[in-house]
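Pinned message: reference record for S-(hydroxymethyl)glutathione dehydrogenase
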Amino acid sequence: TQGQFITCKAAVAWEANKPLVIEDVQVAPPQAGEVRVKILFTALCHTDAYTWSGKDPEGLFPCILGHEAAGIVESVGEGVTEVQPGDHVIPCYQAECRECKSCKSGKTNLCGKVRAATGVGIMMNDRKTRFSIKGKPIYHFMGTSTFSQYTVVHDVSVAKIDPTAPLEKVCLLGCGVPTGLGAVWNTAKVEAGSIVAIFGLGTIGLAVAEGAKAAGASRIIGIDIDRKKFDRAKDFGVTEFVNPKEHDEPIQQLLMDLTDGGVDYSFECIGNVSVMRAALECCHKGWGTSVIVGVAASGQEMSTRPFQLVTGRVWKGTAFGGFKSRSQVPLLVDKYLKKEIKIDEYITHKRTLAEMNEAFDLLHEGSCLRCVLDM
Ligand code: NAD
Ligand code: AHE
Ligand code: ZN
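Predicted structure (tokens):
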């Protein structure tokens, strides 16, 4: 099928907040430096819901959302050397070109090569989209658009993985699980014996807990306003629970009291700017580090007294857990195959592409971590 359009099913977000519609979409062949991937499984992440809600300043409509998936390369454009048809892959919203200033810096996983194009829903080559419906262009999303049976991605945005890995599981390595693990291992670099606080016990927060447990944290304090989150969190390594709703004093004060002056590391896994403040302020004076993982809506801003930083607390953030996507996603797949990291435990629901809107509803229910769609 190289060089030809493919017509397939995709969930199209025509407008913010309007139910997605399963449409027949034409997917153009990959151009130079592009890869067309048959998506077999995709999960939903809260960031898809965030963009769909209309609160993402980079959200463009109509678009095809989705960024946590796995599939098989169908065809490749000119000059693509690192993958070929038949390869099993995970699309990576965080690209890795290994050539740009950022990739070569050794200081960040934020590749600069295609980010400007992926932020405006187009491909870099001709600044056009590869999706259309009856000639009308449909925007890409995060350089991945995995809510389609076929998608086109930049070659720097696709990780080749072990073909024996179950795609219905490892699709989660496209976003949520690496984000939480990497926030602990790469961004915070939590040491053995540390006291860790996690705000928000969804998939991201639980992956932080898993990472902190593996790093040898002595106490892992989970904070959530939904009591139902607590039982499950124990299995991921959370040792203590706090529900802010059950206390009158500010949560930062309560945590300082519980930990003899504050935690060593805190992680905000919600996207709430007042919780981000609390997460910083519950850190121990002199060294406590707070990592922002949650994505807050357009227009939201954080605040704290500068004195909090003057007295040695550190405020950081992380995207995709600081992992270099093309290099490290395959290693995470191998870790899963060796049972060194969990994936199955995060999959609470399964649906099909046709049930996309129901899957989005599930995402907002407390019981759902990840819902995986069979395409
Ligand atoms: P989720 O909705 O499953 O989890 C959030 C949890 O926070 C829920 O359990 C909820 O009950 C809890 N919560 C809500 N308000 C709270 C409050 N005021 N205090 C305490 N707990 C509260 O979401 P998720 O899939 O785990 O994602 C978490 C966030 O991370 C989202 O904002 C998502 O967009 C973001 N994210 C960021 C990256 C990144 O690379 N930085 C990657 C993936 C996801
Ligand atoms: N367009 C959004 C940006 C949202 C955001 O911060 N995205 C995270 C990934 S969330 C995955 O679920 C990220 O990696 N950001 C770095 C980047 O380059 O986008 C907004 O709010 O503007
Ligand atoms: Zn995500």
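Pinned by admin. Summary line: The first helix runs from residue 46 to 52.
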